[in-house]
Amino acid sequence: MNDPQATLAEFMAERFGLAVDPWPEGGPLVPLDQHLVLAQALKDAGYTLYGYCVASHWPEEVPKKGDPIPEHYEVATGLRRPGKGTHMAMWRVWVDMGQGVPSLADVFPGADFQEREQFDLVGVVFDGHPDPRRLMLPEEWVGHPLRKDYAIDTGHLPWR
Fold it and tell me: What is the pTM of this model?
């Protein structure tokens, strides 16, 4: 495997029709219904280490030209193929508000706490997660503090 990124791009193009050139920094945007399928296919191809899950909240955007971009989440995932020439396989999914993301916790146990953290702090729901409780904040905490619409001066006892 001379160029792992090129090999990964070929795999993604052949199996999932994701011919992306140039390869985006966070990986290609994958249809939500392919998220779990892609994760399993990559695991079968040797990407056995769960690297990360990062969610971001995007409020509605009204550009000067073109259609408005609705409020949504974007969830980025990265898997590592261990061994010589190790590298990351990364992809992103667009998640509409009120929609869940298929959990990867059954495929990668390392996804468990990371998905819980993203729910707790950003508000993304992971469908099928074995333990969808808050991880870092008390159960009675209202809201998700890393959403862009969460007021920075929100008071929560006993902290403020």
Answer: 0.88
Distance between alpha carbon 153 and the CA centroid of its chain, in Å?
Answer: 27
Domain ranges of the chain: 4-61+71-127
Q: What is the pLDDT of residues 93-104, one digit of tens each?
A: 999 999 999 999
Q: Which fold has domain 4-61+71-127?
A: Beta Polymerase; domain 2 (3.30.460)
Token pair listed for 125: 């729901």
Calpha distance 28→159 (Å, rounded): 40
* Residue range 31-41, pLDDT digits in tens: 999 999 999 99
E strands, the chain, where? 29-30, 49-58, 72-81, 87-96, 101-102, 126-127
The Cα–Cα gap between 73 and 136 comes to 20
What's the angle, vertex CA 38, arms to CA 37 and CA 40, rounded to 5? Answer: 65
Q: Are 150 and 123 contacting, i.e. CB atoms less than 8 angstroms apart? A: no
